[in-house]
Amino acid sequence: MVSEVISFVDAVIAYDNFPAVAGATFSVDSGEIILLQGPNGAGKTTLLRACAGLLPIARGNATVLGVDLKSDRATVRSQVGLLGHSNGLYQDLTVAENIGFWSRLVGAGNEDIAQAMRLMGLSERLSAVKISNLSAGQRRRCALATLIVRRARLWLLDEPHAGLDAQGRDELDKTLRSARDAGATVVFASHEIDRAQALATRRLKVTSGVVSEA
Amino acid sequence: MSRPNNGRVFSAVLIKDLRIEFRSRVLMNQVLPFAGLVMIMFAFALDNDDVLQRVAGGLVWLATLFSSLIIIQRSFAVEAADQALDSLRVAGIDLAGVYFGKAIALTIKLIVLDFVLLVTAMLLYRVDLTGSGLVLLVTCVLGSTTGLGFVGTLYGGLTAGAKGRETLLPLLLLPVVAPVLIAATRATEAAFASGGAQTSEGWAWVGLLAVFAAVFGVGGSLAFGPLIDE
Questions:
Q1: Which residues of B touch A183 (CB under 8 A)?
Q2: For chain A, is the Cβ count within 10 Å smaller at the N or the C terminus?
């Protein structure tokens, strides 16, 4: 088990030849819930996508789950779960079928599906409901259940509270704490400052591509 | 978590795509009626039994191509709706497995479509089929639908995230599948013995269909990942 989940040392992340994150140095330990704070365009999404292995590290050093991001981004991608504004679900399939699809991809069993649904508070009644018939909060929980069934060890969430009502936000916060208790590390960006601060165990401030402790 | 292997990805995507079709019934309720309507319109337009019997093969494959555009667009619309394909991409899933899964699901749908179109042609245009013609026709359908499945998945994926993808897909795809149209039409004419053609004349065209499918199967599996990743 790697205790240091993310380690960036003077890492520069270029996006279309523009250094969106310039010389970031920070680390995240296992079991933390990290809030990335900052205005729009500050580099939060770029940082999350780089941690997911989607953007190359132009300079400096960066490791995620002990894997060097400069040499093996493919391995990192398979071990982290990135959830942006969309949920990546199939609208014509049911909750159980969407989670089952991911379970089949990674070779997980029925027990894993049941556990993911239980952790996300997706009842047996909901399991047979098509995604197109669910509320935004229920869809979000289903998307998070796919991260659990994938056994993602690092959750990277971009504005996870967006589009949810008050009850959905409460459920999401509970979900993220449950995921942390189950061994996942969570890094998320949010503009819901009060709610996000209450949820986070630590905050990082991102301003004009520079990362610092908040 | 270990990286998913190609076989698992292939079967998961294949089952998922067929299940979505089973649920939404787009092929059954929209594409097949459209294809049948095209065949009837051809009959109205040509309105001559001799001409219809002679060109039946070409009409079947033209209807297949037009209908396949709807199926391909639908295949990628379900991926784009909630950025599901993007989720697969960012999760480090081997996209060659996704490519083969989607291509074979598409091929199965096209086989169903062609079965209906060929039966419609035999009933509407009164074409005959001998035993050897049937063997040639089945092989021709397998070869051409596999080729269309591969090339359709490649170009469907390429245009999935593009602006104006509804018009871009036909513009890009139809010129590329011209060899399938020609070869499948000639092989079907031979199977139907249209214009005095011999069944044996069709096998060379089936060979061309097999080469086309093989080239796009291999090339598509190599190109699909980098194209989607862009």
A1: none
A2: N
